[in-house]
Amino acid sequence: MIHFVLLISRQGKVRLTKWYSPYSQKERAKVIRELSGVILSRGPKLCNFVEWRGFKVVYKRYASLYFCMCIDQGDNELEILQIIHHFVEILDRYFGSVCELDLIFNFHKAYFILDEILIAGELQESSKRIVARLIDAQDSLVEIAKEQASSLSNMIAQVTK
Amino acid sequence: MGSQGGWGQSKEFLDLVKSIGEARSKAEEDRIVMSEIENLKRRITEPDIPKRKMKEYIIRLVYVEMLGHDASFGYIHAVKMTHDDSLLLKRTGYLAVTLFLNENHDLIILIVNTIQKDLKSDNYLVVCAALTAVCKLINEETIPAVLPQVVELLGHPKEAVKRKAIMALHRFYQRAPSSVAHLISNFRKRLCDNDPGVMGATLCPLFDLIAADANSYKDLVVSFVSILKQVTERRLPKSYDYHQMPAPFIQIRLLKILALLGNGDKQASEHMYIVLGDMFRKCDLSSNIRNAVLYESICCVSSINCSTKLLESAAEVTSQFLKSDSHNLKYMGIDALGRLIKINPEIAEEHQLAVIDCLEDPDDTLKRKTFELLYKMTKSSNVEVIVDRMIDYMISINDNHYKTEISSRCIELAEQFAPSNQWFIQTMNKVFEHAGDLVNVKVAHNLMRLIPEGFGEDNEGADNQLRSSAVESYLRIIGEPKLPSLFLQVICWVLGEYGTADRKFSASYITGKLCDVAEAHPSDDIVKAYAVTAIMKIYAFEIAAGRKVELLPECQSLVDELSASHSTDLQQRAYELQAVLGLDARAVESIMPSDASCEDIEVDKSLSFLDGYVQEALVKGARPYIPESERSGMSNISNFRGQVHHDSSTHGLRFEAYELPKPSGASRIQPAPLAASKELVPVSEPTYPQEILQPASVSSVSETGPTEFKLRLDGIQKKWGRPTYSPTAPSTSNSNPQKTVNGAPQLVVQGAVSSQAHDVSYDSRKTKVEVSPEKQKLAASLFGGWSSKTEKRPTSTNHKTTRVHSAAVEKSQMPTAAVASTEQAAEKESPQQPPLNLLDLGDPTPGDSTASIDPFKQLEGLLGPSDVSSVGNSAVTASKSADIMSLYAESPISGLGGTVANMAPTNSINLTSGVSNAANRNVPVGSASTQVAPVKKGPNPQDSLEKHAVARQVGVTPSVTNPNLFRDLLG
To answer: Which Pfam families match (chain B) (predicted)?
Structure first.
């Protein structure tokens, strides 16, 4: 199972963290500090895996952003690498050629997308289309809510004028 | 909402994110976050916060927490937000609580009720949000509260809900296996689900169940094999393809399960031969996902009772991995080799050079993996080389965790394969010297046992040799500074036990050394204790051998010091030493026999040597001893236990809803009978565990007693419910529309209503858009570079709004037309590229083409006073939000085309679900998608241009220090 997902920038800034196993606030900070130290200093041609405290951390760099996932000893690293890529592809479709900036300012949306891909530390849906459809359904609800809110406030504004 | 920035949040929030982004050091970042925390603390408790604002505060809390700071002051507000009726707010609330709270947090009890309600919601998105929260938040104690609802959701019409429900049950299984023990048949049933997503999800709990008990699932081997076969034959919908590979993630899960089922079972394994053979047939290392599946196939082959042919294929793939240039594949190859050599050690031989290369590689990860392989293939012939390598590596690293691991491996190998005593002792010394503090205490104790016991049972001479070589080497090492405490303990113990055994060293020499050790480590009580006891042993052996003993002066001072020590243990040892010195040889020999640490000490548990004393006392009239179990007062211990257990089960919190109060006031007056009736009446949820646990006792009247102790949640619920919450509710203008949106019926009926709603809303948006161009022009006149932008913006947005109107008018024709056109598009597109929409034709506006000449130069105009950001805001927000909708707009429809085209002739996997799913999509979304379709996807200058524009409004500029911020992640 995936224990946590970290998105760290080249400069070591945290862009997103999702914990599927219980870690206290203190442990989280320690994990991030340790891992960013290890991962950011690794050369480009080395493995995308790091053994860490009896777990394995699979990471991949996209532009300036490192996507890291921590998994158990028995898990398949190459599969996790592809899950990361799957996530990035979905982000890319959603944001339209996603860049780090999108994630910085829309981290909550990235969380919502992640929640449709992983659940309880497992991959819950491997079809990009279905994930996209679900996120779309949620977003369209948001849109409708916004539209109705603005139309209603418009009407109220006109009535109270 | 005038202050809204480009991403839908307030300027204030964007500024915060920006300033964090620009922080030069962690300290500066911390300072900014601290002031934000103070700010939020103050603001969040203000009365009458509009819900929208509150939502943003919650997101800001998430941000603060994400950066590693404590936002616990705001948790309660996130919890409150989950109670909200609007899905928008509810979803944010759930997101925040799942990020904030661990499963054992106190606040979870406040969410359980909401989750229960939401699981029953008729809007499937609400149910999905609740299920996501269930996976994170529900702990062992609260599982019974939601279990019936979650089980019910397994039959939900929406696949997404079913899938999440299965994953929730999987989580429950991980938390408390017994809680879902009665539901295993449900998992088996869901394995045959028509939807591949649901089937794939079911593999997760099944994997865990099979890992725990493979024998009960042997009957499924054939099913798993046939599913895997169908997957590889591309019988699943094409949407599950990943990089041209059919449903690889499902394949991997299946292979993992087959590996468990075939382990040590020839019959089960034979079923898998054909399908596994097929896996290796198409073996090329071009795509990563194929490699992942290949690797998993190797793991499966190495686990099952495999045929030689399969083993050959697996070895072939492994050697290809090892020969690859990619470090990742080499790593996987080393791992695979480690698995295969368990079956056939000879496989390793042809890869010797590759393994050595990996061992020499500068990549630490690869090196460690290779050490793991070496560890697995160590024999007595190669142990010296391997262990020496390991120790060298161990000395060179700082990672304590790995140091511990590798040192214990060294020790294990040394104990198992040591070619000579000399080498063994030297190896142990090295390991202890460099990793002594990290070595498990057990290992040290093991060594202390190993030295007296020796390797060979009947070779006393060799054992003696081992001991004296240990003593010699320890005496050499003992003077070195900074020896780890554990190592010193071993040294002291061995010197005490065997220091004078071969008469090579005098007692005074060894005791002198031991005194030095104790002196050199004044703060380490354990080492001092070991040293003193060692000294005592040496003197005792001397006395027993009839030699005269002189206490060395430094020894005397040590004993004096320790007898005044704060540690009672040290004091006692010092006094014992003094006492032993005063005894005669015979007594000393019986308390401190030489080389007897391995002799069994007989313990007389029945204290038979006291029998005479007891007898005497009884004769004198003492009362005989009565065993504890027979004493009165505790007459029935098993009964008592049963009661405790029973009580604990009924005292637990109850989460099912109480009955509605009777119309008369009877319930107030007679609470006890009501409680009793509650217990007696069979509840409509038959799976509720409490009922299952004690069906017999339910009928007993005495049960009403315990029920009165229960926490009555209905009274509490009112406190946290609507009344106290309403003060924070916003003005009606905000909450009303959200409420209407939330209901699912709305979605279905909306076809008629929405066209009006859309008209109105888009009108309102249009007016906004019309205002902003004026501002834009103003900006353009102030900052020259804006002009091309202003030309472009209005055209594209107008474009959209006109389309909206046409969509509203031609509402009935539009969707069918869209299906037809996107179907064509779906056929034309190559699977890797994001589909281009045919409706896209009108999009490249003149403004666009001019903009693409030199986007950066023109955008420069945006830099400068922050006023600019607010000017362009509304226009960009409009187009940006439209973008988001459009991105996925055509996917459902083209999905329909894809699945239809892909329909396989088999019945085993029902493809109609995909079709009906697409058809289920409500009309408004469909029409909305066609409205905003003309926005491109993929790498596209316009996209990045917009992003730059938005970014600069917020104030983020691609600076020299961080130019990558804007680069496409997939670029």
So the answer is: Adaptin_N
Distance CA B478, CA B195 (A): 70
**Residue of chain B minimizing CA distance to A56:** B365
Whether chain B has a CB inside 8 Å of the CB on A84: the answer is no
Domains of chain A with CATH codes: 2-126 (3.30.450.60)
Task: For B372-410, give one letter per residue: b (16+ CB within 10 A) or e.
Answer: bbbbeebeeeebbebbebbbebbeeeebeebbbbbbbbb
Q: Which residues of chain A neighbour B22 with C-beta distances below 8 Å? A: none
Residue A80 contacts residue A121 (beta carbons within 8 Å): no
Which residues of A, range 119-148, sit inside 8 Å of B by Cβ? 119-120, 122-130, 132-148
Give, in order, the Cα–Cα distances in Å from B425 to each of B217, B477, B506, B598.
50, 12, 22, 19
Identify the CA nearest to B890 among candidates B837, B844, B843, B840. B837
Residues 6 or more apart whose CB falls under 8 angstroms from that of B539 comprise B507, B511, B549, B551, B577, B580, B581
Terminal CA-CA length for chain B? 35
Quick one: CA dihedral A51, A57, A60, A66, positive or negative?
negative
Q: Which of A10, A78, A91 sits opposite B332 (nearest CB)?
A: A78
B248-298 pLDDT, tens digit each: 999 999 999 999 999 888 888 888 998 888 888 866 777 889 999 999 999
Q: What residues does A99 pair with on adjacent strands?
A: B968
Amino acid found at B275 = V
Could you identify the residue written with the tokens 């798993």?
A: B224
Name the residue facing A126 among B159, B168, B240 (closest C-beta).
B240
The enclosing H or E element of B755 equals: helix B744-782
Q: If we measure between CA atoms, which residue out of B797, B791, B796, B794 comes closest to residue B851?
A: B791
- Our separate counts of H helices and E strands in chain B read 48, 0
Report CB contact under 8 Å: A78, B135.
no
The three-class DSSP label of residue B939 is coil
Distance CA B500, CA A127 (A): 74
Exposure letters B778-801 (e unless 16+ CB within 10 A, then b): ebbeebebbbbbbbbbbbbbeebb
CB contact under 8 A, A64 and B132: no
Q: Are A100 and B965 in contact (CB under 8 A)?
A: yes
C-alpha–C-alpha distance, residues B9 and A107, integer Å: 12
How many A-B residue pairs are in contact by the CB < 8 A criterion? Answer: 302
* Entry pTM: 0.66
C-alpha to C-alpha distance for B119 and B149, rounded to whole angstroms: 6
Please name the residue ranges forming H helices in A60-127.
77-95, 100-105, 107-117
Query: Using CB atoms within 10 A of its CB, is residue B969 exposed (0-12), middle (13-18) or buried (19+)?
Result: buried
Residue whose pair of structure tokens reads 């408390």 in the numeric block: B176
**How do A14-19 and A49-52 pair as beta strands?**
unpaired
CA distances from B549 to B256, B537, B592, B596 (A): 69, 12, 15, 22
Which of B12, B400, B884 to probe the A interface (max A CBs under 10 A)?
Answer: B884
Helix residue ranges, H only, B138-183: 143-153, 159-175
Complex-level ipTM:
0.91
What would you measure as the largest C-alpha separation in chain A, in angstroms?
A: 67
**Radius of gyration, alpha carbons of chain A:** 19
Instruction: Residue B366: list chain A partners with CB under 8 A.
Output: 46-47
CB B697 within 8 A of CB B652: no
The residues near B446 (Cβ < 8 Å, ≥ 6 apart) are: B411, B415
Q: In chain B, which residues have pLDDT < 70?
A: 1-9, 282-283, 455-459, 595-601, 632-658, 660-945, 947-966, 971
